[in-house]
TrEMBL record:
PANTHER family: DICARBOXYLATE TRANSPORTER 2.1, CHLOROPLASTIC
Designated name of the protein: Sodium:sulfate symporter family protein
Keywords for this protein: Membrane, Transmembrane, Transmembrane helix
Lineage: Bacteria, Pseudomonadati, Campylobacterota, Epsilonproteobacteria, Campylobacterales
GO cellular component, one term: membrane
Amino acid sequence: MSNQTIKYIVPVAVLLILWFIPAPEGLSANAWHFLAVFFAVVVGLIIEPVPAALVGFTGISLVALLGLVGNPKESITWALSGFSNSVIWLIFAAFMFALGYKKTGLGKRVSLIMIKYMGKSSLGLGYAVAFSDLVLAPFMPSNTARSAGSVYPVAINIPHIFDSYPDKDPRKLGAYISWVAIATTCITSSMFLTALAPNLLAVDLIGKSTGHVISWGEWAGVMLPLMIPLFLLTPWLTYVVYPPTQKKSPEAPAWAAEELKKLGAITFKEYLMAGLATVALVLWIFGKEIGVDSTTVAISVVSIMVLTNVITWDDLISNKAAFNVLIWFASLVAMAAGLKKVGILDWIGANTQEMLAGMSPIALILSLLVLFFLLHYFFASVTAHVTALVPIFMTIAASLLAPEQLVPFTVILAGSLGVMGIITPYATGPSPIWYGAGYISQARWWGLGAIFGALYLAVIILGAFIFI
């Protein structure tokens, strides 16, 4: 039996096994059957027998077909509810921002400028790679597009200048650059609400659980003070823990300068893209105060990008990655909402409240944060992690924490999604790209992931003590 066939069989087996187990006391048969489909979807997202978007789409189709959430009209309304979700369209719009950076060449220019002015030493190159990611992070909700699509093509050429290849002197420079790149993109993914698509998905699920939708500014107010010191520390810490044998790199700035010459003078479209991105960022931060919704800002800027030919309409409608995420996340939002609709979250809340009622608030908060982080060892997708765990963790938190504790807790819980991507070679989108570059062995990656993962988790816990 082929590996692909096994991948097809496993989610179906999970569905059938759970389906025919009697429903626990307090849950209706429909709710239990919905949970069986939900778990099958999560397993499908982890092992991906078919594209992830198709897994979610199949899940909502099956639930609607079986009538597990109500009559036919209620079923189709529920199944399509995710496509009317404003957060999903914010994610879609942000993919167009990423396309604008790529098509105008602004993303590549930013990376080369960083290397030109900061790359005279190996440590400086580490910071150049880190800051290249940071500049793009607020506008790219796909850390795969940002780190693997924009930073990687530039950064991976740097070790070659010094004759550092996966099979020849990887520790000379390539291994250091690779680890700094993945470690810092994990941090920037937590730093900004719009730097990681699952952040936005988590915020939407949290809003449905608590009635409070975390704004861009609220997120930044908690996560920036935690992530900025960690971001500045990481290239240096990597230099200490996993040092390159090449300490100086005078050739790198010269190489970057030559590449910038090939790009030519900065174009009007690059200026326009930078200006539109800045306007969007300002309105994301202050829009709530002036009554402008974040998604309204995003789709308006995308419209201007198309009208000014920064990107074309054909670029927009042919962007497979954006439409893939649109269908994928819209399906998952509906699946997560279904947990509430059929009564599963209320049932979990009632049972866990009794079990955990004796814990102090701080012990409960720390336990939830640590468990949420460590459970990511079992997920190859941050999106699957969010879909499976955020509704459950929020149900527990909402029933046991005081209202003034709940909002900062939700920001820190969701904010951990980026940094937890450091722990394994499969934990977040860019990880397989940087691991696949071949400079870092699997054993070394797991070891470094444990060290940096412990540090990043410690910062998340520190945030709980500071803000909650």
